[in-house]
Design brief:
With about 400 residues, the protein is α+β, with helices and mostly antiparallel strands. The protein contains 10 helices and 16 strands. The strands form 4 sheets. Strands 1, 2, 6, 7, 8 and 16 form a 6-stranded mixed beta sheet that branches. Strands 11-10-9-12-13 form a 5-stranded mixed beta sheet. It has a 3-stranded antiparallel beta sheet with strand order 3-4-5, with no helix packed on it. Helix 6 crosses helix 9.
Length: about 400
């Protein structure tokens, strides 16, 4: 499977200028190509092929005085900008036709030089390399110092250089890794996600919600107030904006590190993991939106899913409409309603339930049943049979692995 390994970059002032030039050239090529595609569609002209588009916005554009500076950067990153545009259009049309699942995808839009996040991608054709001294050699940029927190498991197929809103630089390598099955565990677990407790497992364990954003609100409020007092367009306002971005980056990084550790522990200790398929996007539009986004359920479930696949564990999402809280795990009695303020309840069969633990136990049972049905209705090749789910899902987008750093690393 493909994974992403991210490392911090520390470019010199000259290399920062070269990277800024590369970001700008990739952005211009993307916008020129998007403009040509839109104009062709508006005027009823035939679709411009990828080869003709590349020739016009890159090859021919370099010969003009207005775009001659495109030759100052690697041609590969310009081609990758066109590849990003083509991917955006494919996702948009697949969403229109219903081939792409999930929320509707909007058509591609123009990139702005004011975007707080900038990125360029180099493939193997660009001949990027890691030097003997441990630096990342990028064509027409130079040897950029890297803070290596771990070794790459294999030769990377591409590297994306990213500048985030706080001004930090990162190198994101895509590498091909094999599955690393762990010794088989004897336990299975169902997980009920919540806000009071981030996760409650079927064995009775309750993981407190760390609430990283809530704990940082005072520091964030102070930084945002300082930003609001600065004059628009001033250097001090730009400095204040970076301070706000750094504060948010710290919250996001702390949450991601904590989520990685918890998901790794759960996957290591259990042979099968079952969670509820929550509609996080819908919950994010309620009055609990801030708490829902602060919890980071989607990130946690995504980590569980790809780590289970990598380490030879089973992972199942239970239908979000399954009444896990209202169903008695002892006798199967279904209550008509269960308000959120009811945290404990007693079934007519005499069993006293903790709401969250009971839900986790029911998720465990439902996940086992769904997994058993899928194994019966699917073939050994992982192909989906009538009514069955896919046992062996196809390779998806490269996922970021868990964070790690050496002693003294930034």
């Amino acid at each position: 499977m493909q994974l992403r390994y991210n490392y911090r970059l520390y470019p010199t002032p000259g290399q920062r200028d070269a990277l800024a030039r590369a970001f700008g050239c990739a952005r211009v090529v993307f916008n020129d190509a998007l403009r040509m595609r839109r104009e062709a569609r508006e005027h009823g002209l035939p679709h411009i092929s990828d080869a003709d588009l590349s020739k016009q916005v890159i090859t021919e554009a370099k010969k003009t005085s207005e775009r001659a500076w495109l030759g100052e950067v690697s041609a590969v990153l310009l081609q990758q900008a066109l590849a990003d545009l083509n991917t955006a259009y494919r996702n948009f049309f697949a969403s229109l036709t219903g081939k792409r699942k999930g929320p509707k995808v909007a058509p591609p839009r123009f990139r702005s030089k004011k975007d707080n996040r900038q990125a360029i991608r180099f493939t193997r054709n660009a001949r990027f390399s890691i030097t003997a001294g441990g630096k990342l050699h990028l064509p027409k940029i130079g040897d950029v110092p890297v803070r290596w927190s771990r070794d790459l498991p294999s030769d990377p197929s591409s590297v994306t250089v990213i500048k985030d809103a706080s001004g930090r630089y990162f190198a994101s390598f895509v590498v091909e890794t094999g599955d690393e099955p762990r010794p088989e565990a004897s336990s299975e677990v169902g997980i009920d996600l919540g806000l009071t407790h981030f996760a409650v497992t079927s064995d009775g364990r309750k993981v407190d919600n760390p609430r990283f954003l809530r704990k940082a609100e005072r520091r964030l409020r102070k930084a945002q107030k300082a930003l609001s007092r600065k004059e628009k367009g001033s250097v001090n306002r730009q400095k204040a904006r970076v301070m706000v971005a750094k504060a948010h980056a710290k919250v996001a990084g702390t949450r991601r590190d904590w989520t990685h550790k918890l998901s790794t522990q759960i996957i290591r200790d259990n042979q099968a993991v079952y969670v509820e398929n929550l509609a996080v996007s819908g919950l994010g539009r309620t009055r609990l939106a801030r708490s829902v986004h602060d919890a980071g359920w989607s990130q946690f479930v995504t980590m569980l899913e790809y780590k289970a696949k990598r380490y030879g564990r089973h992972f199942v999402k239970v239908d979000r409409w399954f009444p896990s809280s209202k169903l008695c795990s002892a006798c199967g009695t279904l209550r008509e309603s269960m308000p959120l303020n009811v945290r404990t309840w007693e079934c007519p069969c005499g069993t006293a339930h903790d709401r969250d633990i009971n839900a986790a136990i029911n998720i465990l049972a439902a996940g086992r049943a769904e997994r058993l049905n899928a194994s019966h209705e699917s073939g050994r090749d992982g192909a989906c049979r009538s009514g069955g789910g896919q046992v062996r899902p196809p390779h998806g987008v490269a996922q970021p692995v868990e964070a790690g750093s050496l002693r003294g690393a930034a």
